[in-house]
Structure formats: C-alpha cells, structure tokens
Amino acid sequence: MNVRPIPQRSSGCVYLVGAGPGDPELLTLKAVRLLERADVVVYDNLVSSGVLDFAAPEAQRLFAGKRRNEHTLRQEQINALLVQLAREGKQVVRLKGGDPFVFGRGGEEMQELAAHGVNFEVVPGVTAACGVASYAGIPLTHRDHAQGCLFVTGHLKDGSANLDWEALVRPHQTVVIYMGLNALPDICRQLMAHGAPATRPIAAVQHGTLSTQQVLTGTLSDLPAKVADSGFTSPSLLIVGNVVKLHGTLNWFNPQTGATSCLPPGHLENLQFPVLNASAAH
User: Least C-beta-crowded within 10 Å: which of 6, 77, 91, 112?
Assistant: First the structure.
C-alpha cells in the first residue's frame, strides 16, 4: 500500500489578512500588529495605500493584484510565491481587500499552503459588503425591509452574468453584488426579466469608505443610465433592495472630510496599540 508522506512544516508562516474595504482605521488590531512585524507583504489591487503604511519600512512589498482583464500574477503563481517565501523562513502577510474568505480566494491559497506543509493563519477583515454599506448609510438588514442578505459576484462568464436570478429577485432581502459595475445593465435587465419590479431600489457605491466615495441610488430601470453618465469606475459595489431607500436619511459619512457629526477627522491618529508578545505574533 502506498502511503503519502506527511508534508514537512516550514519555519516561515503566511498570514492571510483581511485589509478591510479601504479605510485604514477599519483594520483589526491583529492585522496592524502583523503588518508591523512582517518580512514580506503580498498585497492585492484593492488594498489601500493607507493600509500598506502600517507595514515596517524595511518590509518587502510585492504587488499581486488583479484588475479587469489584467493579472500581474496568475493565481497559481501567487500560490507558489507564498509557499516559496514561507520556505525561506519569512513571516508573510498576504493582504486581501475585505475579508480573505469572501470572494478573496483565501480558501484556495490555504489549500495550497496546507498541501506544502506551510504554517498559516487567517485574520478576518471587515468585508466590503458590510463596510461599504455602512459608510453609505444602507443597512443590509432591517426589520421593515430585509430579513436576509445575499452576497454574490457579478463577474461575467461567456458574455453574460452567471447568477441564480430566481434567488436574487425574491422580496424582503438585500442583494450585494461584488465586481458587478461593468455588468450593471445586464444585471438590471436580468433581475427585471426574472420578476423583480422595475422600481426596485438599487445603489452603486464607488470607492466605499474612502475620501473618493460616491453613492448613486436609483431603480433597476434607471440606475444603469445614471452610472453611465457619472463615469463611475471600479472598485464599486451594487446593493439591491428596499434598504437602499434609507440612504437619504442614514447617510452619515462625509467623504470630503472623512468626518462624522460626532468626531473630527483623524481622531484615531495617536492611538497607541499595546505591545504584543512576540511568541503570540509568530
């Protein structure tokens, strides 16, 4: 009987860290501590510069981002890079926008690391759906409007959106569509064709949580034209459902100043983090 050998563990470690939706102040304490101690930071396209600023000046920074029709590294190459760095004994922070397990391919990278005997940990992040919706003043659930929430990706396949339209058009729920801006006209057509009313509210949020954040609201019938006229670009998030109607009264975030009505901008700049025991960090 052939017995598969147990992979030998490397001395390095890979931390799959959620970088959050953009605003650096939404990072977890653990994410900040690991960035400060990382030998190498491998980061995605959606990681903001403010998040990268937490890394030590001497840390090596490697861009592994993916843009529409433009991949700096294929996923297989990223997987191999993480394995190689860990085998060199490096402490690697793999930074992913939002949360590593929500459309971040974190599970795929973990599988590769496990197959090669590489030590790894996962540090959750504020996923884009939650962070962006919060900064847009759109609650994802609300007793009067939505008793459930679906997260889906709007990537196109063979020229058409490949989604479970029957599930997405049900009432009393919120649908958050990642990476759907370029497919917005097709998404709205498909939702209406599968039974959603043309008046169903929908919002597009560009650069959510950042100083460049913009929010456009409308309906399935008119939002595509509004977005086309606005010149919206990615990264943008789509939110579909009656909760979108609350944006007008719950819109608390001022992108121009980064301030709220409660606290001045930069109120956390001097926040001091307690020292983390070195054995806990690595």
Answer: 6
